[in-house]
Amino acid sequence: MAQLFEAEQSNETPIAVERLLGDIRDVLPTDGILISGIGVRHALAQHIRFTQPMTHIVGSGYGTMGQEVAAALGAKLARPEVPVVAVVGDGAFRSTMQTLLPAVEYGVNAIWVIMNNYSYNIIALYQKRHWKRLTGTEFRIEGSDEPYNPDFAELARVFGACGKRVERPEDFKPALEEAIRAERPYVLDVITTQESRSRASGHRAVNDILSKEWTGEPV
Length: 219
Known about the structure:
By secondary structure, this protein is α/β, with parallel strands linked by helices. It has helices at 2-8, 17-27, 41-47, 67-78, 90-96, 100-105, 121-131, 152-159, 172-182, 205-211, and strands at 33-36, 56-58, 84-89, 111-116, 162-166, 186-191. The chain has one domain (2-122, 151-201): Thiamin diphosphate (ThDP)-binding fold, Pyr/PP domains (Rossmann fold). The protein has 10 helices and 6 strands. The chain has a 6-stranded parallel beta sheet with strand order 2-1-3-4-6-5, with helices on both faces. Helix 9 links the parallel strand 5 and strand 6 (186-191). Helix 1 (2-8) crosses helix 2 and helix 2 crosses helix 9 (172-182). The chain is globular and about 45 Å long.
C-alpha cells in the first residue's frame, strides 16, 4: 500500500495514473458519481473508496470499450444535481466520442477525464508480456515514431463543449474543480503515463497471465 500512496504524490510527467486517480478522489464530493471503463477499473478500486451507494458505475467483464463515455449521460440525467465524472482511456474515447454531440445539444453537463497515453494500453500490455511486440495498439503517424491523437480539448470546444488539456500534475485538481463549477459538458485531456504501479490483489487467472511470460501453453 505504501507504494500506491507514494505514487499518488508523484510529480512526474507524463502524469502518473495513480496521481490522477488520487486527485479525482480528493476533488469529487462523496455524492458525486464516478464512471470507469474496463481498462482502469482495478487501479481505480485501489485508490478510491466509495462511501455512498450508486456512486460508481464500472464497466467489467465483457463490457464494451467506450461505454463509460455514453454512460455519463445517463448518470447525469438521473442525478443532475451531483457532479458526474467519467474516467476514460483515449482509445475508448475515440470509439464513442460522438457522445459529446447530444451532451451539448441537450445540456447534459457531464465531465470526461481522458487518460491520454497514445495507445490501447491494456491490450498493449498483454502483447508485450506474451509476444514482446506491439501490433496496432500504439497511435502513431504511419511511417514514423510520432505519436498521434487529436487535441481532445480542442475537439470538445468544436463540438460546443468545454475542453482543457492538462500536462502537469499540479494543474489537474484546479482543472477538475473548474470543470465541476462550469456546469457544462467538459473534457479534460490529461497526458498520462503508460505504466501503472497498481497491482491486482488476491488470486485470479488474469493475475497469472499478467505476471508470467506466455509459453504457448494454457495458464
